[in-house]
Write a structure and sequence with these properties.
The complex is a heterodimer of chains A (525) and B (408). Chain A contains 17 helices and 12 strands. Chain A is of the alpha+beta class and 525 residues long. Chain A has 3 domains: 149 residues, no CATH class; 126 residues, no CATH class; 162 residues, no CATH class. Chain A has a 5-stranded antiparallel beta sheet. The longest helix of chain A has 30 residues. Chain A is elongated. Chain B folds into 2 domains: 211 residues, no CATH class; 160 residues, 2-Layer Sandwich (GMP Synthetase, Chain A, domain 3), CATH 3.30.300. In chain B, α6 crosses α9. In chain B, a hairpin with a 2-residue loop joins β11 and β12. Chain B has 15 helices and 13 strands. The longest helix of chain B is centred in the last third of the chain and has 28 residues. The chains are: A alpha+beta (525), B alpha/beta (408). Chains A and B meet through α12 and α16 of A and β1 and α3 of B.
């Protein structure tokens, strides 16, 4: 039985490609007016410029003599298997179909026959085209002015995989995919609450990219949600191909090295953010979801901090902050101390370093610059190279160039150590975009260290702190909860207290639901 | 959007300004920047009297030789340069004619002053060291006994490649566990020179053997290197002039009054031959100046703890009372050496290196005012009381002396 239906389906599903059969159209047109099926096919084909992936299919309901209906969809974007199964599987007698008007046929199809969710009735061909482009199927009945669009979006897509950029030892292994709906579903699965809101919209005059704003009503501040909508509304551009486009359009400070919008590949990070009153922005076509407002401390917190024990997580956070300073300052401090403040070094160390530098032809600054740039080149090459050789080439490159440069007397061994510890520390920072800002600032600090010594480094640090304190992300101070100092939020900033102690939501992020849980031992109310 | 477009002109000029400021960075010329391999790191400095001023010698570290992992030993780890000049700076700068690098004094470990210069007075040469910004104040100052500082600086040492380093660490160590030497750094020396109630001391250093041999690496290949550098005794200064030397026992006596001899061994003879040794492990001393019957009186209180370190005679250390006997003997020994030191200094040098004057100054400022002009004479006739309290805590890992077992 089932096989027979399929066979029938295949036979009926004769593809009509307008480009290949330009003359076949007028011969099969008993009612060749505006609403005739062939006219419809011609219109939609013209609108899409006779694209080769456009599929136009004609089906007769109730057998070979039944009324004609036609489906139009884009090959690869739509999953039409169910649609055709239900069309051919209907067991209404032929007479019933023949007696019905085209409008009644369409209504009958919509109401009972089609086993497809999300059916809309539309007027005119101009509404059918965007639907077809979005992967839906347009269904026409011969002679009917209206048409149906069926939510058949589907086709090939990447499955839910482990995120590449933010991996954890302990914690969920799922990451976002390129499909917006999958992504929102991943979060919804974690937060089963009616207050989870998703506001959809399309941005991009050409790409018409689906963008969704997700927040928890009653948790997120209304002002922040409104601000996000307002900023998204103001975007007027051709194309949104990745959430990075949105980020650049809506971020507060375009010319700061520091990111003021957080991005993540992890549904659990987004869920945690939403529960703290943050707002997430999903963009179709990328697994990177934006999270606002973003705080400076957030970039040093890994999702895992909340899955491992509190003491361990607190130590890790301190370690990350230490690495932050090492990655930022190690080369500049080395330059400053060895070229300006030799008296700061213990004598044996000074002699050791001086011995290593014997015969090195460049000043320490040039030496450091050379090594840092070499490392940046290797690193960039490692990212761009095919995966299979990328890693090995970068490791070999570092070893060979480091070793060879020392033996050739171009750099001192101590400098190789400084540069490597800097490079490794840079990878400790969990957020990639924060790590990038470190890489930029490091060179700046090396410059001031080489010109002014520790004095320059200190002045640079003061400038850096001033800059950081001036930043805002969607109305929230970037340095909160340190500047302004929010005492209640210290429980989850540099240290992380046990989960039962995190009774209130962070006040750094405006939210309208401050209490998270009952005090320890108390009854949750 | 429109705001951004309007801001385009301002943005462009901001970028231009930034680029100009970047250019400024290159123009600074890196003020006072010195690479490590442009420095001649001075480890030791010597000062001697010369016909027309001073002869300054500098021991420069050869970092390539010190840090070399292999192939070392070919060159001398240090190089000593010397030059004469009317002033110290004169001489230092004159050295640039024979040296490829700039002398860097911040890592100076030791300053050696030739005996003839020390006897003449060192106040003038210390000025440059305390004034010059590059010099720290944490190096030791010693006096070369019967020799010139240049000869001391020209001697290589075994074990420690940098002779200045070897002097620095061994002075540290010997002060702690042998006690006849004393650390003197620039600050204490200058304040002692300027003080009326506190005289300064400097540890002496002597060369054992022919100094000529010490100039080559060859002599280090022997198991008993010759010449050797050795600290010996303390030099007593009156104001900024070296007056003379204290012997071993008197140096120790001075050390006791300063309370810094923890770790020093004390020995005294047994009633029937042999010696008993006590190792002090903790020590506290208190120097006071008082006025009694209208006359200044100095007193020293010493409290110490020690362990029995060796017993060469038949004494039953386990017997009740024998330990307190030993304690008394130790106290006696300490008291005698302190008194000997005080008497010798009072008689010969008349410099209050014990600091009774300073103590009196603190305790009785009014009385001190009266006497301070005449303090060297007053000090010479000062009555000094010494009060010692020693506790012996441990007798070591055996009870009866080994000698006793031999005889049984």
């Amino acid at each position: 039985m089932k096989r027979g239906v399929l066979k029938l389906l295949l036979k009926a599903g004769k593809r009509i490609r307008r480009s290949s059969h330009p003359t076949s159209e007028p011969s099969v047109a008993p009612r060749a007016q505006e609403t005739g099926l062939d006219r419809r096919f011609e219109q939609i084909s013209t609108a899409l410029g006779a694209s080769s992936d456009l599929v136009l299919k004609e089906i007769r309901l109730g057998g070979a003599a039944g009324p004609r209906v036609g489906a139009a969809y884009l090959d690869g974007l739509s999953d039409t298997r169910q649609l055709f199964q239900s069309l051919h599987g209907n067991d209404r007698p032929l007479e019933e179909w023949l007696n019905a008007s085209p409008e009644a046929v369409l209504e009958e199809l919509r109401r009972t026959v089609l086993a497809v969710g999300d059916i809309k009735v539309i007027d005119g061909i101009e509404n059918a085209v965007p639907a077809v482009l979005a992967g839906e199927t347009a269904l026409f009945a011969d002679g009917c002015a209206q048409a149906l669009t069926l939510g058949t979006s589907g086709g090939e897509k990447r499955g839910v995989e482990e995120p590449n950029t933010q991996s954890v030892i302990r914690g969920p292994r799922e990451g976002f995919t390129e499909l917006l709906r999958t992504n929102t579903a991943l979060v919804r699965r974690k937060i089963r609450d009616a207050r989870l809101r998703i506001d959809g919209r399309q941005i991009g005059r050409v790409t018409k990219t689906d963008v969704a704003v997700m927040y928890l009503k009653g948790f997120a501040s209304e002002a922040v949600v409104a601000e996000v909508h307002d900023r998204l509304d103001r975007i007027d551009t051709d194309a949104i191909l990745e959430s990075g486009y949105i980020e650049e359009f809506i971020q507060d400070h375009a010319f700061s090295p520091f990111p003021t919008i957080y991005n993540t590949e992890r549904p659990d990070t987004v869920a945690a953010g939403l529960l703290e009153g943050r707002v997430a922005i999903f963009v179709n076509g990328t697994p990177f979801v934006l999270l606002v407002p973003a705080l400076f401390t957030q970039y040093f917190q890994a999702p895992e901090d909340y899955y491992q024990r509190a003491d361990f997580s607190s130590l890790l956070r301190i370690l990350r902050l230490t690495s932050f300073f090492v990655a930022l300052l190690a080369p500049s401090l080395y330059i400053a101390v060895t070229t300006f403040h030799q008296e700061l070094l213990p004598t044996p160390l000074l002699i050791g370093l001086a011995g290593q530098r014997e015969g090195v032809p460049f000043p320490a600054f040039i030496e450091a610059l050379m090594m840092e740039i070499t490392f940046e080149i290797l690193r960039e090459a490692g990212v761009r190279m095919p995966k299979a050789i990328g890693q090995s080439v970068s490791i070999v490159g570092t070893l060979v160039i480091g070793q060879a440069a020392v033996e050739a007397g171009l750099v001192s061994p101590a400098m190789v150590i400084v540069v490597s510890i800097t490079a490794i520390s840079n990878f400790v920072v969990p957020a990639f975009n924060m790590a990038i800002s470190l890489r930029i600032l490091r060179f700046l600090f090396m410059g001031v260290a080489a010109s002014f010594g520790l004095f320059g480094v200190v002045v640079g640090l003061i400038g850096l702190v001033l800059h950081l304190c001036s930043l805002k992300s969607f109305g929230v101070s970037y340095m909160a909860p340190y500047a302004p100092l929010i005492r209640a939020d210290q429980k989850d900033s540099l240290l992380r207290l046990p989960v039962w102690a995190l009774r209130t939501r962070p006040r750094s992020i405006p939210n309208s639901n401050p209490v998270r849980q009952a005090p320890k031992g108390g009854n949750p109310s | 959007m429109s705001r951004r477009l309007e801001g385009g002109g301002a943005l462009a000029s901001a970028v231009l300004l930034f680029e100009l400021l970047l250019g400024l960075l290159l123009l600074t010329g890196c003020w006072n920047r010195r690479e490590l391999n442009e420095l001649a790191i001075a480890a030791a400095m010597g000062m001697d009297k010369a016909a027309d001023g001073y002869r300054i010698s500098i021991q420069i570290i050869n970092p390539g030789e010190i840090a070399a992992k292999k192939g070392g030993g070919m060159m001398s780890p240090v190089v000593t340069y010397a030059a004469s000049g009317h002033t110290v700076m004169d001489a230092l700068r004159k050295m640039s004619t024979e040296m490829p690098r700039e002398i860097y004094l911040a890592h100076l470990r030791i300053l050696v002053i030739g005996e003839s210069l020390a006897r003449q007075g060192i106040g003038k040469v210390l000025d440059v060291l305390s004034r010059y910004h590059e010099v720290r104040t944490d190096f030791h100052i010693v006096a070369a006994r019967d020799r010139t500082a240049e000869e001391v600086l020209s001697s290589l040492t075994a074990l420690e490649k940098i002779p200045a380093n070897r002097l620095y660490t061994s002075l540290d160590l010997s002060e702690k566990i042998w006690a006849t030497t004393g650390k003197t750094n620039l600050d204490t020396l200058i304040s002692a020179i300027g003080s009326e109630g506190q005289g300064a001391v400097m540890t002496g250093i002597e060369i054992v053997g022919d100094p000529e041999n010490g100039r080559t690496v060859e002599q280090l290949k022997r198991t008993t290197p010759s010449p050797l550098l050795r600290f010996s005794g303390l030099g007593v200064m009156r104001q900024d002039k070296l007056e003379g030397w204290l012997g071993e026992r008197e140096s120790k006596g001075l050390g006791y009054t300063r309370g810094n001899l923890a770790g020093a061994p004390i020995s005294f003879p047994c009633p029937r031959g042999g010696y008993i040794g006590v190792e002090l492990i903790r020590m506290k001393s208190d120097v006071r100046g008082e006025v009694k019957a209208g006359k200044p009186v100095g007193s020293v209180r010493i409290r110490a703890e020690g362990n029995l370190s060796e017993v060469e005679c038949e004494t039953d250390v386990l017997k009740l009372g024998s330990i307190s006997e030993l304690e008394k003997e130790t106290e006696n020994e300490i008291r005698t050496s302190v008194l000997e030191a005080v008497r010798r200094v009072q008689r010969e040098y008349r410099s209050d290196i014990f600091g009774f004057g300073e103590a009196l100054h603190r305790a009785k400022p009014a009385a001190w005012k009266k006497w301070k002009r005449d303090w060297p004479r007053m000090f010479a006739g000062l009555e000094v009381k010494v009060n010692v309290d020693v506790k012996i805590r441990r007798i070591g890992t055996v009870g009866d002396p080994v000698v006793q077992k031999l005889e049984e």
